[in-house]
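Support case: shikimate-3-phosphate complex. Customer-provided input:
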Amino acid sequence: MDFQPDLRFLVTPDPAGHGLHGWLRVPGDKSISHRAVMLAAIAAGETRVEGFLEGADALATLRALRRLGVAITGPDAGLVLVQGIGLRGLKAPDGPLDMGNSGTSMRLLAGLLAGQSFATTLIGDASLSRRPMRRVTEPLGLMGAQIETNAAGTAPLKVVPMAGLRGINYRMPVASAQVKSSLLLAGLYAEGETCVTEPAPTRDHTELMLRGFGYEVRRTGHRVCLRGGGQLTGGRIAVPADLSSAAFFLVGASIAAGSDLTLTGVGINPTRLGVIAILRAMGADITMLDERLAGAEPVADLRVRAAPLKGIRIPVEQVPLAIDEFPAIFIAAACATGETVLTGAAELRVKESDRIAVMAAGLTALGIEADPRPDGIRIRGGSLGSGTVAAHGDHRIAMSFAIAGLRAGGPIEIRDCANVETSFPGFARLAESVGLGIEELWG
Ligand code: S3P
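Agent response - structure generated as follows:
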């Protein structure tokens, strides 16, 4: 059992009605940071990664790669230098690799390690050890990999060395970028072609970055394919600021009267833009300024000003494009007039926490009518009250209730916030610098 001293946030309302103001750069994109160091590790030559997320999740990936024999310098103010050792250069680690709270590390590395000639064991914390892993171990099994889970299909994952993987044509039952990426990484080691068809578009950072490393990836409609046995060549990667971290401020500045905030250098990959589409449909005033490219990834500065929000029926096709931002969107819904209805989002129940149940409980504790459903939630906008809510160790729940403080009738105490560190180190300080009344309390 992991022991972490509890970190609590105490947020106080914004009585003067100043809202959030100024300019802000949130930390590097988590999904892109993981992929940058993984691909750099198995490339030929050095890769220079700038803007790497120094949060616990991406650091878990970095540590695992070091233990697999990869020489890595940093991170130092977001700079990481990776000495790639080629597709066949990874070495057996001296014990289990600990992925902490990070589902992305575990699922992507399972794919990368499935075709190696040595055994590895992947372990995680209590939350990660409850999350479903058969979604990767089963299709990897179809490729010839052998990965043992425990009886519930959860970690630890024991990857047994296998002589050779073979490419497959796989139709994913759930829209998951982690599953797609895991199979593509295994596909680098497989005989022939590996193709993955997604039921709906999911983030495509793996495909874009593989191409950036000079590896051919073909996409036709919802199907992505690559052939095993090629070579990746190292280079330079500039990681954009994480839209998923920016989302808390997009909501915070939208709900707090008087706000005018600009978030700089944020990734605006179309496969991630659900949160902006949904908030705009609710009436949010978000402008994209200075759109440009950071390598293969589009970025922009996002200016957000306070605006009255209204409840909406969230279009189901936006769900995979906003999958990590729903806790923040639920706070927007709580502050909107009328009802917001989300369906087709059962995946939220198997994230770092059951995000439907945990958000519904917290909103209810604050006096908002929230009706959880198996695959979504119905939230009636109202007056957020004061009280204590539990984040259940889920970083995004903790930060969502923190920004709710901007519109609350009194202080909100949020318990179990230490994992904010997994994706957004320095959140409280940065949020305070633009106007959120937030205190961190330990113990
Ligand atoms: C991620 C994919 C998503 C997302 C997660 C990061 C990725 O998970 O929720 O935070 O980097 O590929 P799923 O693939 O489970 O939807």
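The chain has twelve helices and 25 strands.

Case will auto-close in a few days if no follow-up is received.
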